[in-house]
Amino acid sequence: MISLKGPAFKIVAAIVGLAALVFGIYSTFFMSSGYKTTTATIVSIEEDPNYIPDPNSENDKQYIATAKYTVDGKEYTRQLDSYDPGYKVGGTVEVKYDPKDPTKITSGFGFGIYLMIAGGVIVLAVIILTVKKKISVKKLKETNGELTFAPSVKGEERTLYFLTDLGTVKVGHRLEDKNRSVIYEAKMTKFSPMSDFKFDFIDHEHNKTMPHLIGHAEESDWNSLLIDNNYSFTFDGKDVWKQLRKLGVKIDSRFGQAQGVMPSYNISWNGEELAYVENTSQYVHEDDEEAHKVASKVPVQGFYRVRTREKNLDMLFTILVAMARSGATDERGGSRRMVFNTLKGE
Fold it and tell me: Does residue 10 or residue 313 have the better pLDDT?
């Protein structure tokens, strides 16, 4: 199973657009090859009963014109495959017919020209978006360099709260302290349904801002005996989980360690503990949870309670964003390890 978002959506769009373009060219320029031209007389113009008007368009009606023409002394009456506002009953129009079967006619470019235009626009849009993404990733790397993070610095343990914006296409994330002060956040600066999102990662504790490109979440099946869905997205042009694994990130997840049915995660970086994280409802602060009387502990993706001694939060925040946006529960972008760890009681 492949989800139709981001790169997968662009692939499907390119295939559909190319098919429409090819068929449009064929039907417009080649399907009527060898046809002869004659003059037809319009005998009726009727409203199309099957036309569904576009609420955003001023045209609330569509018409069908019928014309008669003569070939080799025999008269034919057929609907025209196109309509022009200048048509009128009794008027004439040139049509092309198939000499082998005069019932097949075309009065112009017909529907093929629209397919050709639509297909060309879709293919061109995919090409432009692909090129723009490559340029954006190149510029980002020239500015930021390869993905790196500040070295781990430990301090006193503190509890932080990771929240995800809901109910908006510009889904952002923020990390708050117990006083609800935002100490780290990811603000979306550009939304696109087909290309990567642009984000600013803002470290308020160290007064730093770093731009990043985040792709659409992708889901696919691993080709293994025990299939494990893989959830991921691109981060600055590369698979986020592959980059984090390469940098030494590991996430051990399980049920039963946190309260209720909430999943928990022990996150380490280069063999050292980075944070202990618990999934929560959308009310991550304890007093909010109590005020809203959250009795059943049902986890909501993208909301976490975090215990950490880490002062430099770049790596931790990126991992939490990766979990929130992909839905993965381990550093391989999967979910199977959580089940295995829970069954083993680790």
Answer: 313
